[in-house]
Specification:
2 domains; six-stranded parallel beta sheet
Length: 367
């Protein structure tokens, strides 16, 4: 079987979907038996993952993006018809506007925020999600959802047949399961610093950092712990960035942290907090649990499902609930240990080799 996977996110500035695509393709290549895993545009080797830049050099990236533009240029998509003539399955993303009809079609549903919370996305992203739903999700042979919650939302919002959607959880790099605290001095995280609570994610409205900052302002233990926030700049982030860079007491903003530094940064935290308003899977929560860090996260979307018994759940819009959960966790050693144990156990099901194996089984059923 020849499976063509749209890998254009690897050439763009992207966070969660790029993480998924990168590790997913890598593990599909490792586990493929009689299957041939191809990518569009063609990428024969994965360089280091960087969310801020393409994984390829500019001379390699620009022609591939030009190919994507050409493939989307005409409604009949003749280039894609030609490129998929000899493949059995084409797994597409929101980057493909008009997928061809000469091969079986699949896709991954990552989340439904563009439909449920359009105010948390750019107008361009909302339009792309609407086009993706109409041209891909409604006509695909089968679909992958990264959580039960995402599957349920897709069925409820788009009216999709639930029998066409299979839940396959995303994975976590193995390094998180054995991560040791490693604080990077050039980030101002030397070993003499105070213990810290970590929050990780792109600085954008959906990640709800302003509510976290409001909660930290009134937190009575902020003189004993630092709040460390790491994440690249996203859209509509000016107000939040102004707060982060103004030097609020006990808060340190690290900006974008490279992938290879995240496991050590995560493992060194006393607690991890993730008050996102909506997630499809929630990589940072799963990674923190794998690293044995007690987690506080939102009681919305997929996050209770992904965290299981490995986290305290809060209303992400309530600074008071966030404060209360922080105080309870940071002052209760028994609770910390309970969450570490439960989180590590829960995270075992989020391994890329499991995701890849189930995905190959999914593709065999489609083919």
């Amino acid at each position: 079987m020849r499976i063509l996977i749209d890998a254009t996110s690897l050439l763009l500035r992207s966070a969660g979907i790029k993480t998924y695509t990168y590790h997913w393709i890598q593990h599909l290549w490792q586990q493929a038996g009689n299957e041939q895993i191809l990518t569009f545009p063609r990428i024969s080797k994965l360089a280091a993952l960087n969310h801020e830049h393409s994984i390829l050099s500019p001379p390699q990236t620009y022609p591939r993006l030009a190919l994507l533009y050409a493939a989307n240029l005409l409604p009949a998509a003749p280039l894609l018809w030609w490129m998929t003539a000899s493949v059995d399955v084409f797994h597409v993303s929101t980057q493909i506007w008009n997928p061809p009809r000469n091969t079986k079609l699949t896709a991954t549903i990552h989340d439904m925020t563009g439909h449920l919370m359009p105010e948390l996305h750019t107008p361009g992203n909302v339009r792309a999600e609407a086009t993706f739903a109409e041209n891909v999700l409604r006509r695909a042979n089968r679909l992958i959802a990264v959580s039960e919650n995402t599957r349920s939302d897709a069925v409820r919002v788009l009216g999709l047949d639930p029998a066409r959607i299979e839940v396959i959880y995303s994975g976590i790099p193995d390094v998180y399961f054995d991560a040791q605290p490693h604080l990077n001095p050039r980030k101002g995280m030397g070993p003499a610093e105070r213990p810290y609570v970590l929050s990780l994610g792109t600085i954008e409205p959906r990640k709800n950092i302003d509510t976290l900052l409001d909660a930290w302002q009134g937190f009575r233990l902020r003189n004993d712990f630092d709040l460390v926030i790491a994440g690249a700049t996203g859209w509509s982030s000016e107000k939040t960035l102004a707060r982060l860079t103004s030097g609020p007491p006990g808060v340190r903003y690290l900006g974008y942290v490279p992938e290879d530094e995240l496991p050590g940064l995560t493992a060194g935290a006393t607690a991890f907090i993730y008050p996102s308003l909506y997630e499809g899977f929630g990589f940072p929560v799963a990674q923190a649990m794998a690293a044995g860090v007690p987690v506080i996260t939102s009681n919305t979307s997929c996050l209770p499902e992904i965290a299981g018994e490995g986290a305290l759940l809060v209303d992400p819009r309530s600074p008071v609930e966030i404060q209360s959960a922080l105080e309870k966790l940071l002052t209760t050693q028994v609770l910390q240990q309970q969450l570490r144990t439960a989180g590590r156990a829960r995270a075992q099901q989020y391994r890329w080799e499991i995701c890849a194996r189930r995905s190959l089984e999914f593709f065999r059923r489609v083919g």
